[in-house]
Write a structure and sequence with these properties.
Structural class: alpha/beta
Strand order of the largest sheet: 11-10-9-12-13
InterPro entries: ABC_transptr_periplasmic_BD (IPR002491), Bact_iron-sidero_bind (IPR051313), TAT_signal (IPR006311)
Number of helices: 14
Protein name: Iron-siderophore ABC transporter substrate-binding protein
Main location: other
Largest sheet: 5 strands, mixed
Oligomer: single chain
Number of strands: 13
Shape: globular
Radius of gyration: 20 Å
Organism: Rhodococcus gannanensis
Subcellular location: Cell envelope
Distance between the termini: 38 Å
């Protein structure tokens, strides 16, 4: 079992074009008013209710965008982290004291009976791997919008996720405001750190004892850095159809970049350090010898991993100041 990879179930693949969201008989006053909309996902089109009152999130991180748009879900998916109400600190206050039902976990999957018990009038799961069978079962309970067709499962970028959920909730204008705000933060941080521009970055993790891995271009953690001006080296560009490719100890020599980032969330930092210390070839990498390596394992690392309109500002505030000195800034 992978330490920090398989438990999260990422299967990010190649990027797609912008999802086309067809709105039918809809109006958006920017404050939540809507007469209903038709939203497309991987399995077709769904007519969503106007002003839904009981929203259930079956996506791994969808509750962040739902909360950011001013809607408190009645049910959420518990991805990881043992957080109160399955919601991390950057989003928890927006629950306003509500305690949504836990309708699934990364280990159990979506629990249909718990979704039904939450009596939803809208089900959202854009950052997910919902199957056709699951979609059919969920749609029998309430109108359901899951992962878009133009991206791999678990592959929707945070910008499109926010827009899709905004359309479903009748809050497209608000969603666009949120996307613009966070995108501006990326722009501002990149401008403040010109040393990031054009530098290569590799984001890796410990997959299993003696086995490491590299995240691909569409993984949220890699996107975080490329949105700041970093670029992907050949070893990363070659990863397609998945978000993570294992590499052997011998292949660590391929893990050379201007910046080497190790993701060790979930308490796996000590295991990672022990494995690296017992891997002689790793010590010979130029990035290691020159101190261009960082291990990310705290709440900021998780904010980067969640990669939502709510979590990213926290990651942007905390991670760039740590990596800038490694690049001579």
């Amino acid at each position: 079992m992978a330490y920090s990879v398989s438990r999260r179930g990422f299967l990010i693949g190649s990027s797609g074009v912008l999802l086309a969201l067809a709105t039918a008989c809809s109006s958006d006053d920017g404050a939540g008013g809507s007469t209903g909309a038709t939203v497309a996902d991987k399995y077709g089109e769904t007519v969503v209710p106007a002003d839904p009152q009981r929203v259930v999130s079956v996506g791994y991180n969808d509750q962040d965008a739902i909360l950011a748009l001013g809607v408190v879900p009645v049910g959420v998916f518990d991805w990881y982290g043992d957080q109160p109400d399955a919601t991390w600190p950057w989003a928890h206050d927006l629950l306003g004291g509500a305690q949504p039902a836990i309708v699934g976990t990364a280990s159990s999957g979506i629990q249909m009976e718990k979704v039904a018990a939450a009596a939803p009038d809208l089900i959202l799961g854009t950052y997910s791997g919902v199957t056709q069978s699951q979609h059919d079962k969920l749609s029998a309970l309430a109108p359901t919008v899951t992962q878009p067709a133009d991206f791999e499962d678990y592959g929707v970028p945070w910008q499109e996720q926010t827009r899709i959920i905004g359309t479903a909730l009748g809050k497209s204008d608000k969603a666009e405001e949120l996307v613009t705000s966070v995108q501006q933060q990326f722009t501002d941080v990149a401008a403040a750190h010109p040393e990031f521009a054009g530098k290569t970055v590799i984001v890796g993790a410990l997959k299993a004892p003696g086995e490491f891995g590299v995240y691909g271009p569409e993984d949220p953690k890699v996107r975080f850095f490329t949105e700041l001006g970093f670029v992907n080296p050949p070893v990363t560009q070659q990863i397609t159809g998945t978000n993570f490719a294992p590499i052997s100890t011998e292949q660590l020599t391929l893990a050379e970049a201007d910046l080497l980032v190790w993701y060790a969330g979930g308490g796996f930092g000590d295991k990672l350090r022990a494995e690296l210390a017992n891997t002689p070839v790793y010590a010979e990498l130029p990035a290691v010898k020159e101190g261009r390596v960082i291990i990310l394992e705290d709440e900021a690392a998780e904010a980067m991993t969640w990669s939502t309109v709510l979590s990213l500002p926290y990651a942007l505030e905390n991670i760039p100041p740590r990596i800038a000195p490694l690049l001579g800034a």
